[in-house]
């Protein structure tokens, strides 16, 4: 702020950051003598202001793909347990509301079930199944970091689950073990749903009356095997969740 009214002092210096205390003192005396007692108080410049947006010494930016999120289990033995998960583009855990709906549908099917969680990601569906009484779960995930995080969470819970770090289609072309419940949540808009459904049926991965939960983009109408009967359906954000029951092929 400027308190100078003398004609020959037009403006007070705005930037005094480089002035020594002696220069500032002389400046005050000079202005005081010109203005008959008005004192000029030079603004205090914050030399470190521009550095406030820079990271502190030794700090580094954390990659978004490494940032930690949380997964909350919503029912069963591990209810309310919160687990750390990696946040990755395209990694979209099934929302709590959808999981609650799905597992209400599966309430009488989970006890002792053998579960396969394809395109597992955070493993939200397979872990929820284990929490609610499934005998065991196999998680298939291609991303090594995500798979490692999921393995650590299974160990933390002490659950009977195993992680296979492998692409889903490569896994389905290997040795076969039938499963009672399959969770299938492929990346949206990449065309994996149809081929995966066909491989599950044709290669013998499904028990006689297996249940298959498929989560896909809402505009997609996948061609599922003819002996899969649509049992339930729920809207899931920008996708749709469909629960099918398999019947023995004619």
UniProtKB/TrEMBL annotation:
InterPro entries: DNA_methylase_N6_adenine_CS, RNA_MeTrfase_RsmD, SAM-dependent_MTases_sf
Keyword Methyltransferase: yes
Span list, region Disordered: 46-66
Broad enzyme group: transferase
Catalytic reactions on record: guanosine(966) in 16S rRNA + S-adenosyl-L-methionine = N(2)-methylguanosine(966) in 16S rRNA + S-adenosyl-L-homocysteine + H(+)
Enzyme Commission no: 2.1.1.171
PROSITE patterns membership: N6_MTASE (PS00092)
CDD domains referenced in this protein's UniProt entry, alphabetically: AdoMet_MTases
Highest taxon in the source lineage: Bacteria
MF terms in GO: 16S rRNA (guanine(966)-N(2))-methyltransferase activity; nucleic acid binding
Function according to Swiss-Prot or TrEMBL: Specifically methylates the guanine in position 966 of 16S rRNA in the assembled 30S particle.
Family: Belongs to the methyltransferase superfamily. RsmD family.
PANTHER family: METHYLTRANSFERASE
Protein name from the UniProt record: Ribosomal RNA small subunit methyltransferase D
């Amino acid at each position: 702020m400027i308190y100078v009214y003398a004609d020959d002092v037009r403006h007070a210096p705005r930037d005094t950051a480089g002035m020594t205390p002696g220069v500032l003192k002389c400046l005050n005396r000079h202005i005081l003598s010109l203005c008959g007692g008005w004192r000029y108080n030079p603004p205090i410049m914050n030399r470190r202001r521009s550095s406030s947006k820079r990271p502190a010494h030794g700090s580094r930016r954390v990659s978004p793909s490494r940032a930690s999120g949380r997964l909350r289990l919503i029912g069963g033995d591990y209810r309310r347990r919160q687990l750390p998960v990696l946040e990755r583009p395209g990694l979209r855990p099934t929302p709590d509301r959808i999981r609650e709906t799905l597992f209400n549908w599966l309430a009488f099917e989970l006890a002792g079930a053998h579960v396969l969680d394809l395109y597992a990601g955070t493993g939200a569906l397979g872990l929820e199944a284990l929490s609610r009484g499934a005998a065991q779960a196999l998680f298939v995930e291609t991303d090594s970091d995500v798979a490692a995080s999921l393995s650590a969470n299974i160990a933390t819970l002490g659950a009977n689950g195993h992680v296979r770090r492998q692409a889903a289609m490569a896994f389905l072309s290997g040795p076969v073990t039938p499963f009672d419940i399959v969770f299938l949540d492929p990346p949206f808009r990449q065309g994996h749903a149809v081929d995966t459904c066909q491989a599950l049926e044709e290669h013998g991965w499904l028990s006689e009356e297996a249940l298959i939960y498929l989560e896909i983009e809402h505009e997609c109408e996948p061609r599922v095997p003819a002996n899969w009967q649509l049992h339930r359906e729920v809207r899931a954000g920008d996708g749709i969740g469909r629960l099918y029951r398999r019947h023995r092929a004619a």
